[in-house]
Fold:
Amino acid sequence: MHHIIHTTQLKKHYLVGRERVAALAGVDLEIARGEVCCIIGQSGSGKSTLLNMLAGLEPPSAGHVAIAGKRISAMDEDQLALFRQENLGFIFQSYNLLPQLTATENVALPLSFAGVGKTQRLEIARRELTRVGMGKRLDHLPREMSGGQQQRVGIARAFVTRPKVVFADEPTGNLDTATTRRVLRRMLDCSARHAITLVMVTHEPELAQCGDRIITLCDGRVAENIVQDEQTRDRNRRLLFGETDD
Amino acid sequence: MHFSDLFLFSVDNLRRRKGRTMLTIVGVLVGVCAIVVMVSLGVAVNNSTDEMLKNWGDLTRIEVSNDGTQQNTPKLDDSMVERFRGISGVLAATPAFEPQDVSGKIAAGPNSRYESSGQLIGLEPAAIEPLGYTLLAGSSNLAVSSDPNRIPVLVGVQAPFGFRDTQKSQGSPDAQKYPEYDEDYANITNLPRYDEQGALLNPEEFFFDIMHTKLSYRMAVGREGSGEDVYREYELVPVGMISGGASDWTINSGLIMSIESLKKLQADARETAGSSRGSGWERGSSTGGTGSGSADLVGVSGGDSSSDGVSNSGVGASSTSGKAGGYSRVLVKVDRVEAMDDVERSIKAKGYQIFSITETRRQMQGQVAQTQMMLGGLAAVSLFVAALNIMNTMTMAITERRREIGIMKVLGCELKNIRRMFLIEAGAIGLIGGVAGVLVSVLLSLLLNNLPALLTLLGLGAGGIDVGSFFGLGGLGQTGSTAAISVIPAWLIGFALLFAAAVGLFSGVIPARKAVRISSLEAIRHE
Structure:
């Protein structure tokens, strides 16, 4: 019961011309509640495909995915949308803020989908933004912010609904090293503060070291599934972040 | 998601692409404007035909006739009149009895100097008031007097013009008094006018005051062996003067009596004439001179008298009774215009021909509607193009926003809300276009209605525009110079707005479906 995400024999095939290519060739996973799970692997190892299927963005060819006891692989589009609204957050590599909305409005967007009134959701969004250190950029449009700032807005947007799981797809892929560390720390903070499970895909093995669980994919299969104890994890985090503040 | 949030989101999206939105709106504007202006022209024509028909006569009167050509049509007799009275909505029904075998001359003045061959019309006295005839003087009491030779009559308002001075030669201009018309030929200006005491106010217009002159009716009852006509004489006692309105010529120029009296006359005519009757009436030697004036006598139904008294076989296709017997014409008064359709339908169902202003109006409106339909069709084409335009705009917007839609899906926006968002956008384009279209139409309408004045102002001369003739109703006395050319009623505005919004919404359906189908994977596709 403490497993929030559970997959059995998850498979995904793509048709390339007439050839069937297996992106995932049977993945069995269990991710515990509150865990920070990092998925690493070479390009083409299937890590993005896995994330998409865990988040219900793509249906599996075979096998199934359950989150919080619900089989999302059996849901239709409508049910999935509602499920994502209530249970999932998502952080994108290219931030994906809506260009016409201010930082606050972007963060408030998932709340508006859930039917939260305007005044209330803007208030909640402002609080969330302040927490990720964006208190001075509340009314800025995305184009007026740096990549790191935009991604912090993205983080606030993912966590603002207090979902059960937040998925992050190469969240620091477009950022420089220093910014990457600051952004990553914000994510880990948010996850820890509300005990929200974080599933992050990255291609940088050193970033993955800060997770509780590190899953290495190779050719669509789980090559390694390591669970780190807290001491190791915290040591790795200290090594990674050093004395960076912000 | 709240509707207000959806709405603001949609409006925001429209604002982001001002240029394109504006162009699409202009497309809708042109379409709506075309339709509204076309319909407004038709409304104006219908309004003025209504106005015109009101002058023609009573909208709630039906004339039922039986021309005797239909084999299976039942007799138009008293029992049928009684059945008409029983139809729901019917206020009164009376035959307009004009027996062909009663003919004679009405004479007045010293030595019967003035003569008229006025038509006698028999009407049911009780029906006169409901039929809406206006009493201009005296009373409408046609109660039969004890003396069978004194017959009370109502004089039609134009009947005085039917008298001819027999002492003047027939062609001479002063042998008769003529009605004078106003500029539009719509009204007679020199009709008799009586004050409250019953005194004639304009005696100079007439040979004599018909209300206060002894009238005698000389009924032809046959011819003696020598060829001399045989008459029987009655006194007609005018009790009042009535007007049947601008269009009821028969009533206006006739002499109306109770149908009972007229049936009595008819019976007298037959009895006295014996076998020699039917040769027609010719001028008797006693009056001297040649030719005759003309006037009609009209009879009002006595109600209970049997229809046998009416049936008439001698004079062929008489106007009184068809081959099958019975009356040729019955007047039916309906209590309100809305009931006309039903009453007319049930009378027609019995096999009779009917005439009513309402029926005429329906035909005219049908004609206008047809023309309007054609023009409306052309206008609808432009609105259809506008709809395609909206579809195109929305499809482009969705193609451009694939990523945005993907992101919203990933963030948990329900499909129905995505669909609504685009439907609102499309509907808003339609509605805004509709509002703009209505505004422009109102301006155009103002411009059209003031066109003659404007042209005069510009020194181009005022050519009246006859929209009526444009709608195939020319020559009905309607000229565009006085009546409004374009009328936009409130319902047209409401309809235009609703229709425009509906067209917008409808155009948004396919693009919205397309938007819903966009995969949420669009959000994570890397550029």
